[in-house]
Write a structure and sequence with these properties.
The protein is α/β, with parallel strands linked by helices. It has two domains: 21-116, NAD(P)-binding Rossmann-like Domain (Rossmann fold); 153-209, no CATH class. The protein is built from seven helices and seven strands; from the N terminus they run βαβαββαβββαααα. The chain has helices spanning 29-40, 54-59, 86-99, 136-149, 153-170, 180-192, 197-209; strands at 21-25, 44-48, 62-64, 78-81, 102-105, 118-122, 125-129. The strands form two sheets. The chain has a five-stranded parallel sheet, with helices on both faces. A two-stranded antiparallel ribbon has the order 6-7.
Length: 215
């Protein structure tokens, strides 16, 4: 990467990769970490590299022990390159760009069309921190600070709020204009204070009972 070139602001998204074909190019420890992240979201992972660690091979749906070929990107939803070789990373980028496939290269933002942030996961809640390639180390530090604040209880709150929306939709009621932000704050405060899921559900039931009847 040109150290004097700064990437512009990115557009944050969550890629839904369950059951989607993803490619990891590279066979070492960095490729292992990238593949593990994909496996964690139920992506279908194929690995291409001349040599592959046993742990990485065990994660992959397919393993091709050979150099990367441009046709390897065909049909992929996401390609991740982690070879540590700039010439290979650029070849992967060029092939992915030509095929219209999103590509990430470890430690080489210039070879990326998508950057992978530092992530905190709490059940269905994901908090991602990106520095747009300027400092992955800083992103990790901020991620750890967030992890200290966002505890596991936020997962129960997310599930409780999802149940509210499902209940309203089942009753053919609109969710527009309802104070979900206030409810989220109340539930999170209760959860941080030690309330269990059943207590959150009772709080939700009280909130629903207090809503005006639909006209």
């Amino acid at each position: 990467m040109d150290p004097h070139r700064l990437l512009g602001p990115g557009y944050p998204v969550t890629l839904l990769l369950e059951g989607r074909s993803c490619l990891v190019v590279g066979g070492g420890p960095v490729a292992e970490r990238k593949a593990a992240g994909l496996v964690a979201v139920d992506a279908l992972v194929t690995v291409v590299a001349p040599s592959v660690t046993e742990a990485l091979a065990a994660m992959a749906l397919e393993v091709h022990r050979r150099p990367f070929e441009a046709t390897d990107v065909t049909g992929r939803r996401l390609v991740v390159s982690a070879t540590g070789r700039p010439e290979v990373e650029r070849a992967v980028r060029d092939a992915a760009e030509a095929a219209g496939v999103l590509v990430n290269a470890a430690d080489d933002p210039d070879a990326c069309s998508v950057l992978l942030p530092a992530v905190v996961r709490r059940g269905p809640v994901t908090v991602a921190v990106s520095t747009t390639g300027r400092s992955p180390a800083l992103a990790s530090v901020v991620r750890d600070l967030v992890a200290d604040v966002v505890g596991p209880e936020v997962a129960d709150v997310a599930d409780a709020l999802a149940a509210v929306r499902s209940r309203l939709h089942a009753d053919h009621r609109s969710t527009e204009g309802l104070p979900f932000g206030d409810l989220a704050r109340q539930l999170l405060s209760a959860a941080v204070g030690g309330a269990r899921r059943d207590a959150l559900d009772r709080q939700v039931a009280d909130w629903l009972a207090g809503l005006p009847l639909p006209s």
